[in-house]
Every structure is written in C-alpha cells, then in structure tokens.
Amino acid sequence: LIAVIGHSSSDMTLQAGEIYNKAELVVISPTSTSILLKNFGKFVLRVAPNDHLAAQTLWNYLERQNWADKKIAVAYIPGNIYSQSLTKEFNKLLPEKFVYKCNISSGNFSASDCVEEAQNRGAEIMFLVPATDRTLSNVIGIINNAKGLKLLGGDSIYNPRVLKDAGQQADRANLTLAIPWHRHPNSQFSQTAQKFWNAEINWRTAKSYDATKTIIKAVDEMMGNYSRKQLQRILSNPNFSLEGVTGKIRFSESGDRQFIEKDKPVLVQVKPNVKSGKYEFVILEQ
C-alpha cells in the first residue's frame, strides 16, 4: 500500500492524517476543505480548494451585488471542523462580524426561531454552513422559512435534498453557493460519466476522479521504483502537474493544490429547469 484516496469529511481526514503522516503514507483527499489541513503534514494532500478560497468567492459576490455593508447572520455547527472552518474564514472578510449565530446542531433547534432572531438583530443575509447529516435538514427548514432573507452557503448545501425539499424557496431567497466545481453539460467527461452512472455527476465525483488520476500519474513516474517516500517526493515536486477534469493539478509545500484563477471555486444558484420545471443547481455567470 503506497497511497490512499480519501477521506470525504475534513474531520475524518484530520484524524486519519495523523496516522498517515506517521506511516509516511500519501493521502489525497478529494473533498476535504478545512483550513486546518493546510500544512498538516507533507503526506496529506488535497485537490479541493480550501475554505478560504470558498469564503473569498462568496465575499467577491457580495461586493459585486453591493451587499458588502449588509448585516449577516450565520447558521452553523459549533465544534464541526468543516462548519467552523468556513464560518471563520468568511467572518474574517466581513467589515462587521456576524450579528447573530444560530446553532443548527442544537437539540431544541427551530428554523423559524433562527430566522426570526436573525432578523430581529437586523440581518438581511444568512450564511448557511451545515454538515451533510441532520443539520442539512435543519438548514432546509431555514430555507423554507427565509422570510425575505437572502441566503449564502458552502458546498455542503450542494445536495439534491435541497432541490427536492426547498427548491422554490431557495430560488426566491437567491440561495448562492460557493462550490469547488460544476459540471458543464457539453463536456466529454460529464457526458461519459452520466452515461456510465446513469445520473448527473457533481463536484465530489469530479474531484475524486482527479485525485485518482493524480495518483496514477505519480505512480507511472516512479518507473517501477515503488515506495511511499518516492511517491511523496514526486507529488510535492514543483514540476509535477497534470490537467484534470477540474483544472490543472499541482501541489504547494503546504499540501494544498495551487489554483489558477479559472479553476477556483464557482458560484451556483437554484433555478427551475425550463423544460422539466424541476429545480437544479445552475452556475452563476460572472
């Protein structure tokens, strides 16, 4: 065993990463985004953008909309690695800190109370940062009770449950998400993948594909000299790169992927499909 592709959540990658570093075993996470993984160890790499880049993408959107001076509340999970990371990175960029923090993991959580309290504090925008567990259901409740709030969110909301259970309200609330990548229906990869899986792919599929492709190329460059340390040296070499589905892949000394502008996170919104009438995530053209 010379490499691992994983893990999905930032929390799991951080826990397992300590073991991989000690064992000098390369791990490439396709989907972990927490800022805590930056400089975590030379054997822990990732192909997804970190939460600072996602936060910056959302902040740029606010500025373009002339909403930078609006008061913002946040619905998040205290103690969750991903939720805290993205919340913290976004909060750093705001001229005024969150006017209200709603704990969506609370045992007595109420979506209507969360929205009402945020609006009582003067919030016009709510930033949604759930995990993919029951807290996503709680956020769906917030979307359906938005009552005039504009909504922003991270990649965990990029989920078919949101479209199915809150599509119309998400559209009305202008729900805008920063995600690592979005499929282009005319791309060869999207068409091939959809035919193979008989379903539309998402950013998690594409990043996992690229993580696998990265390992394969690095192993090929080992020329039969298979070792964990050699694989790490190849991947961390500044001259190592490949063109993936989600853009050019090469790693910095921190273990993070180096992104050029066109491969950074993108924004999507929820809109009804003209033909089917069903709600879908649509890339926001800038």
Summarize this entry quickly.
With 286 residues, the protein is an alpha/beta fold.
Would you tell me the structural class of the helices and strands? alpha/beta
CATH architecture of the largest domain: 3-Layer(aba) Sandwich
What is CATH's topology name of the largest domain? Rossmann fold
Order of helices and strands: EHEEHEHEHEHEHEHHHEEEE
CATH class of the largest domain: Alpha Beta
Rg of Cα set: 20 Å
Shape: globular
Sheet of most strands: 7 strands, mixed
What proportion of the residues is helical, as a percent range?
Answer: 25-40%
Structural summary, described in words:
With 286 residues, the protein is an alpha/beta fold. The chain has two domains: 3-49 and 203-255, Rossmann fold, CATH 3.40.50.2300; 52-179 and 265-283, 3-Layer(aba) Sandwich (Rossmann fold), CATH 3.40.50. The chain is 39% helix and 17% strand. It contains nine helices and twelve strands. The chain has helices at 10-23, 51-64, 81-93, 111-120, 134-144, 160-172, 188-197, 203-220, 228-236, and strands at 3-5, 26-29, 44-46, 72-76, 100-103, 125-128, 150-153, 176-179, 242-244, 247-249, 266-272, 279-283. It has a seven-stranded mixed sheet, with helices on both faces. The protein has a three-stranded parallel sheet with strand order 1-2-3. α4 (111-120) packs across α5. The chain starts with a strand and ends with a strand.
Supply the key terms:
alpha/beta; 286 residues; three-stranded parallel β-sheet; 12 strands; 17% strand; Rossmann fold
Please outline the helices and strands.
Blueprint: E1 3-5, H1 10-23, E2 26-29, E3 44-46, H2 51-64, E4 72-76, H3 81-93, E5 100-103, H4 111-120, E6 125-128, H5 134-144, E7 150-153, H6 160-172, E8 176-179, H7 188-197, H8 203-220, H9 228-236, E9 242-244, E10 247-249, E11 266-272, E12 279-283
Parallel strand pairs: 1-2, 2-3, 4-5, 4-6, 6-7, 7-8
Antiparallel strand pairs: 8-11, 9-10, 11-12
